Amino acid sequence: MIRIREDIKKALDNNQAVVALESTIISHGMPYPKNVETAKKCQSIIEKQGVKAATVAIINGDIVVGLNDDEIEYIANKKVEVLKVSRKDIPIAINRKMSGALTVSATMAICQMVGIKFFATGGIGGVHKGASESFDISCDLEEFSKSKVAVVSAGAKAILDLEKTMEYLETKGVLVLGYNTDELPAFYSRKSGIKLEYNAKSPEEIASICKTKWELGLDGGVFIANPIPEKYSYPKEEIESAIDEAIKEMNHLGIKGKKTTPYLLQKICEITDNKSLEVNMELVFNNCDLAAKVAKAYYKGE
Ligand code: PSU
Ligand code: MN
Predict the structure, then answer these.
(1) Bridge partners of residue 99, in order along the sequence
(2) What are the φ/ψ torsions at residue 200 (nearest 5 degrees)?
C-alpha cells in the first residue's frame, strides 16, 4: 500500500536526513499553477542542503512517499477529483482507489509508518474561532500526541483561535518550541501576542531536544514554531480585517467542516489581491529551510 521512492528508501535505510512535505497545501491550499511552483521550490530548498525531500500523497489508491513532477502536477491541476485526506480518510482513499492530498495529520501518520522524523508545512490546523459552538478542532492537534514527528510550521493559521489552540496542545502534552522567538508566530505575521515557554536558538538545539524526547520513549510530535522573515510579514491589522471579512462570508454561506480551511485561505487571497498567497509561499519556503537544517543536525550524530 505504501510506495517509497527508491532514493528516499535508501536514505531512510542508511539513517540519512529526510524531510516530508504535505500535499493538501498544494491541492486545497493554493491555486494552480502557483501551487506547483511552490511544491517544487519547497523540494529544491531542502535538496540543496543535501537532504531528501519527500512530498507525500495518495495516487490512485497508493500511498506515495516522494512524488515525482508528474504526480505533483496530477494532484495540483484540479483535472481529477482529489480528496482532502486527514488521518480518518486514509483507508477510504486506498480502498476506493482514489487520489488524495494529505493534511498535516495524515502526513504525520505516514511519516510515523515509514520512519520520517521531520516534516515542513505552512501552518498546522487548530481550534477554529467559535469552536465553543461549532466544536471545529483540527485533528492535526490530536496527531501530535500520536506520531513521532517534528513539524516545522509558521505557528498556527491566523484564521484560528490561537490561544485555544495552544491550550489544546498543552493538554495533549505536546512540546512547542519557538525558533528564535518568545512569541507564537501567527502564520501571515510574526506576532500573535501569545508568549511561548521555550525559545530554541539553533537547529542543533532543536534536533537535540527531539532526540532526548524520543530516546526517553516519550512518543508524539514536536511543534516547531518558525516566524516568517520580517520582510515578508503581513501587517497584523490588515490581515486581521481580511480574516474577519472572510469568516463573515463563510458563515453567511454556511460553509462548515473540512471545507472551512480551504475556503478561508482562498477568500483571504481574493480579499488581499493575492498578497496573502505570496506571504503563504514565503513562509513555507522558510519552514522548509529550517526543517532541512534540523534534520541534518539530527542525523549528524547518528
Ligand atoms: N498550511 C498551509 N496551507 C494549507 C494547510 C497548511 O499553508 O492549506 C493545510 C494543512 O494540510 C492542514 C490543513 O493540515 O490545512 C488543516 O485543515 P483542517 O483545518 O480542516 O484540519
Ligand atoms: Mn475541522
Answers:
(1) 82
(2) -95, 135
* Each residue's pLDDT tens digit, 71-122: 999 999 989 999 999 999 999 999 999 999 999 999 999 999 999 999 999 9
The Cα–Cα gap between 180 and 200 comes to 6
Element (H, E) at 239: helix 236-253
| CATH numeric code, 2-300 | 3.40.1790.10
Q: What is the CA radius of gyration of the chain?
A: 18
For the stretch 173-212, what's the b/e string if a residue is b when 16 or more beta carbons lie within 10 angstroms of its beta carbon?
ebbbbbbebebbbbbbbbebebebeeebeebbbbbbbbee
Ligand 1 atom closest to residue 104's alpha carbon, by position in its atom list: 14
Ligand that comes closest to the CA of residue 157: 1
Cα–chain center distance at 127: 15
pLDDT in tens, 150-179: 999 999 888 999 999 999 999 999 999 999
Q: Which ligand is nearest to the CA of 104?
A: 1
Ligand 1 atom with the shortest distance to the CA of 138: 21
Residue 229 Cα, ligand 2 centroid: separation in angstroms? 28
pLDDT of residue 292: 98
Q: Is 22 a catalytic residue?
A: yes
Q: For 162, phi and psi rounded to 5 degrees?
A: -70, -35
User: What are the sequence ranges of the domains in the chain?
Assistant: 2-300
275 catalytically annotated: no
Among the options 157, 258, 293, 296, which is catalytic? 157
> Is 103's C-beta closer than 6 angstroms to any atom of ligand 1?
yes
